[in-house]
Design a protein that fits this description.
This protein is an alpha+beta fold. It contains 4 helices and 8 strands, in the order E-E-H-H-E-E-E-H-E-H-E-E. The protein has a domain of about 110 residues: Gcn5-related N-acetyltransferase (GNAT) (Aminopeptidase). The strands form 2 sheets. It has a 5-stranded antiparallel sheet, sandwiched between helices. The longest helix has 18 residues. The two termini are about 25 Å apart. The structure holds coenzyme A.
């Protein structure tokens, strides 16, 4: 068992609300995944993914959370913590937002709230792994105070590992 507190699953920022997944998010999540440019996953795949995330969160106490804009009330993406390539003790921060919302500071704003939530669980360090090509994501992490640790090579290309201590 983890010795860390469960992460808060309701986070609020100036412009955004992060809250738990609902099955009603499936259509939007599917549309978001289709922006990856590798086709659109089936509705069944996306529904199962949401169910799996809720199950994983019940076990791990960490989560990716849908991001909603306060004013518009719309789903614009997700941000949160995952084990990913790292560990439950030092998880990864992750985010993905609809293209139409990029460049307005939303990812940075959501990720700041997730950093605070991670700190509140008692964790001392976070990681993020990002393709070397992904300038926007690297910039978000730089703004959040992450520092480059090392680079690994995968079939898909080079991956930068960045880390941030939580004082
Ligand atoms: C990464 C991502 C979440 C960023 O979301 P966002 O809301 O646009 O991020 P922000 O607006 O908070 O910050 C983006 C920063 O990158 C900068 N940026 C964007 N494109 C850039 C480019 N081509 N070259 C240099 N800087 C760039 C922006 O100017 C901004 O920095 P600034 O505040 O100094 O101007 C978004 O691009 C995304 O969803 N990408 C697809 C999924 C993904 O790659 N997720 C991360 C996997 S590790």
């Amino acid at each position: 068992m983890s010795t860390y507190e469960t992460m808060s699953f309701h986070l609020e920022t100036e412009r955004l609300v992060l809250r738990p997944w609902a099955q009603s998010d499936a259509a939007e999540l599917r549309a978001l995944h289709s922006e990856r440019g590798k086709g659109t996953p089936t509705a069944e795949y996306t529904r199962t993914l949401i169910a799996k995330q809720l199950t994983a969160t019940a076990t791990t106490g960490i989560a990716l959370l849908p991001i909603q804009r306060r004013d518009e009330g719309d789903f614009i993406g997700y941000c949160g913590l995952i084990i990913g390539r790292s560990t439950l003790e030092e998880p990864e921060i992750a985010y993905e937002l609809f293209q139409r919302t990029h460049g307005r500071g939303y990812a940075t704003e959501a990720a700041r709230a997730v950093l605070d939530a991670a700190m509140a669980t008692g964790r001392k360090r976070l990681w993020s792994t990002v393709g070397t090509w992904n300038t926007p994501s690297l910039r978000v992490l730089e703004k959040l105070g992450f520092e480059r640790d090392h680079v690994s090579t995968e079939d898909s290309g080079e991956v930068v590992w960045l880390t941030r201590s939580l004082p």
